[in-house]
Structure formats: C-alpha cells, structure tokens
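Write out this protein's structure.
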Amino acid sequence: MHVMEYTSEGVLTTIIGMGVVFIVLIILSIFIKILNTVVDAAIEKKTGKDHQVRKQPAGVVSPSPAKAPVTNQIKPRDSISPAVVAAITASICALTGKTAEEFKFTEIRRASGSQPVWSFIGTNDVIATRQRFIEKGNRP
C-alpha cells in the first residue's frame, strides 16, 4: 500500500466513526425528548395540574413576591437572621417551584461538622486515590 491508500483509508475510517457517533447522539437526543414528554404527561395526569406552568428557571423571580415564613417559628437560641431565613425560603421555592405558603419550617439549623459533606467525600476520594497510587509503586 502506498501513502495515498493509507491516507484515504484513514480519512474514510474517521468519517465513518464520526458519522456513527453523531447519529447515536441524535438518537439519544430524540429519546431524551420523548422521555421528557412522557414523564411530563405522567406528572400532569397524576397531579391533575398543568406541570408546564410551574416550571421556572432557578434565577427567575416570580411576579408576586414570596412571603417569608413566620419568624416566630424559629427558636430564639438560633442566631439565623430573618433575612437569611427569607433567602433560604426563596431558594427552596425557586428550586421546587412551590410557594412559601406550601412549606412549614419548624427549624433551620446548620449541619453538624466543620465542612460540607461534598467536601468531606471529595477529600476522602483524593486520599484514597493517592493511597492506591502509592500502593502500586507510584505507577498509574
């Protein structure tokens, strides 16, 4: 085989490979859209409400201001200000798509521990990876 034959075979293989990948991605995209439609229809059927009305992007503020929960529900020993409670309530409402009246907060408190759970798990994962690397004699 000459250089030209190798090149043409390589280009043909590349085109076929990329074509297969993009076809599979298009099929996946169509499947996800169909699945999303089916799930939305099932949720609408289950709740009896129009599910599309409740969907809002996370950063969009609803036209009517969300009411903060009554601050007397928070225990006096907590040092969380009403502004922080309102911010937490607004973020939960934006995430779930519900109004503040649908929630009843009995207590808002900090999670125990000095670091968030995701940070703790990430640190443990890095440590475990390094230990495995050292056990293999510093070979990947």
